[in-house]
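Quick one: structure for this chain?
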Amino acid sequence: SGALKLFRVALMATGIGAIIVGVVALVMNFGKLLTWVKNLTNGMGAFGKVVLQTLKIAFYPFIAVIEAVKWGLKKLGILESDEEKAKKKRAQAERKRRAEESRERKSRIQEIENQAKREQAIHDNKIAGLDNEISIAKSLGKDTVKLEREKLNLIIESTKIQKKLADERIALQIKEIEASMALMETWMQQEFVSKKALASFNEGIENRKQKIAELKDERLKANQDVLNSETDLLVFENEIENERSEKRKERSKKQK
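Got it. Here's what it folds into:
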């Protein structure tokens, strides 16, 4: 608890702090010593078991004292309790899990960005080729409707691909930002947080919220790009149909 933490800090600041540090070190390393002896005697067969049992009997009073001291230090909050150790272990496992998830998200985001660039480069090359064909056809007085329609359909296809990639990337980026915000909020729940740290925290949260809003706007733009490209094709087809209709009317008038 907070009171025990304060007591621990105050106690360590007194003159007996060095003694406490020494006792804690002794308690902590005694367990390691017992483990080392046990591992050593395990390789000695039956004789090792006899040696281990003899050592246990000889050092039993000392072991009892160590355990009593350990219990007392845990109660005072100087030595971590089993519950605190388990809590810390769970927290470490959670941090490791979050870090791994973050690495995977960032890696996938980079893959998507690279793929989007490749797709855009392919699209630009195709459009450049069609523009060249359209220009040559016009200079020769040929009809370009088919080529222009192909170009518009190509633009629709490209915007849909870019939208799909953007949707996945933005979703991952938002999740990454939200994860960092959750981590910040967890950290701010700790005790003894300074006003400066609190101000920095609030600024960081606001910046992240702003970034999320920008990403959502980017997603809306990608959706709008698809709608615009589809609208351009509809307008083109409508213009072509109107031109054909006018030509039919002119032919009909001439025939009369």
